[in-house]
Q: What sequence folds into this?
């Protein structure tokens, strides 16, 4: 199993550009989530999904959209990138919401 | 606001010594989890302790949970340089929400 994969590993955007961060898992996990990690702030939940077709907002959802059309994929869309979205983004998955989380390797995003 | 907070923020020890880090939380929980993050990598699950458990062991790790004090501790015995990483606790809210909240982490440096 590949586990949780994320692409790209690194990305530089200009303010106002949009992009999609990809996340996929091959463990048939129902629960998937997106976090951002900033220095001194720990991990903050952006959006999460408890199954295909079901998504909900986390602590810091503004400026981000998600969808869950399949069990395997959970893309995160930045609608209009802002410098405040410069961060490292992690995708995670688990069988159920509060089980052991399996994290992807992260995407380091810089918005200029 | 953070549900879980680790203490200390940073810890520096010599190889062979024990390392203890603590996590305090604010509301009742179903379970508490500890994760490790090596620099630039995704988080890796270490151990999960349920609210009805007081202590769990896994190899050189010992986790305790005191629900009356709303606190947990992670002890790493006989530390190695390879244990150098950041350690995070994650808690749920035991209120029907399907999310985990991570603390800001303890950065552990183990010197040879």
A:
């Amino acid at each position: 199993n590949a586990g949780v994969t994320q692409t790209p590993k690194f990305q530089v955007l200009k303010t106002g550009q949009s992009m999609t961060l990809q996340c996929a898992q091959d463990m048939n996990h129902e629960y998937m989530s997106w976090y951002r990690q900033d220095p001194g702030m720990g991990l903050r939940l952006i959006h999460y999904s408890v199954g295909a077709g079901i998504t909900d907002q986390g602590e810091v959802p503004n400026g981000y959209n998600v969808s869950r059309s399949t069990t395997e994929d959970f893309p995160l869309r930045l609608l209009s990138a802002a410098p405040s979205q410069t961060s490292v983004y992690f995708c995670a998955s688990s069988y159920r919401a509060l089980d052991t989380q399996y994290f992807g390797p992260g995407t380091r995003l810089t918005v200029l | 606001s953070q549900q879980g907070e680790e203490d200390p923020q940073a810890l520096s020890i010599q190889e062979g010594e024990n390392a203890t880090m603590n996590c305090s939380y604010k509301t009742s929980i179903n379970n508490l989890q500890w994760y490790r993050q090596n620099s630039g990598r995704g988080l890796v699950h270490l151990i999960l302790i349920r609210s009805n458990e007081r202590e769990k062991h896994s190899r050189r790790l010992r986790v305790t949970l005191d629900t009356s004090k709303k606190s947990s501790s992670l002890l790493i015995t006989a530390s190695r340089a390879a244990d150098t990483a950041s350690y995070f606790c994650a808690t749920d809210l035991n209120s029907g929400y399907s999310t985990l909240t991570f603390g800001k982490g303890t950065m552990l440096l183990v010197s040879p």
Remarks:
- The interface with chain B takes residues 4, 31, 33, 35, 40-45, 48, 50, 56, 58-59, 90, 92, 97-106 of chain A (CB under 8 Å).
- The two ends of chain A are 36 Å apart (CA to CA).
- The mean pLDDT of chain A is 95.
